[in-house]
Amino acid sequence: MSGAGTILVARSGRKTWPVEGYPSQTPGLAITRWVGYAIVVDDDEWAVTHLSSGFKIPTRPLTKKEAMRLATRLAPLADWTKPRRQIEAKKRNLAGDVRALVLKLRMSP
């Protein structure tokens, strides 16, 4: 995994927070540091984040390896390079599909 950089993740409301992140194999998704209520919680806690919106996929904190696996498995569900609203408009049950995959992989919050 190369190309570490700073990625903005969404926080409460419209606020964003810069965190360390890496590109994933799935265009439009990145592997980012897990952000809790305060800030980065642990050195080995990661999330999958939609780059266009900054929103993380709802999961428990993941290892970097788990996050990469999840990003790869999310690839066929949507064109993640599109803005969030465009994806949601085109794929009405995306949230349900993502939730089902997260549960199947035992990564639920």
Give a written overview of the molecule.
There is one protein chain. By secondary structure, the chain is of the alpha+beta class. The protein has one domain. It is built from 3 helices and 4 strands, in the order ββββααα. The protein has a 4-stranded antiparallel β-sheet, covered by helices on one side. A hairpin with a 5-residue loop joins strand 2 and strand 3. The protein is globular and about 35 Å long.
Count of helix runs:
3
The radius of gyration over CA amounts to 13 Å
Fraction of helical residues = 25-40%
CA-to-CA gap between the ends?
25 Å
Low-confidence stretches: none
Structural category is alpha+beta
What is the oligomeric state here?
Answer: single chain
Residue-averaged pLDDT: 86
What distinguishing features does this structure have?
single chain, alpha+beta, four-stranded antiparallel β-sheet, 3 helices, 22% strand
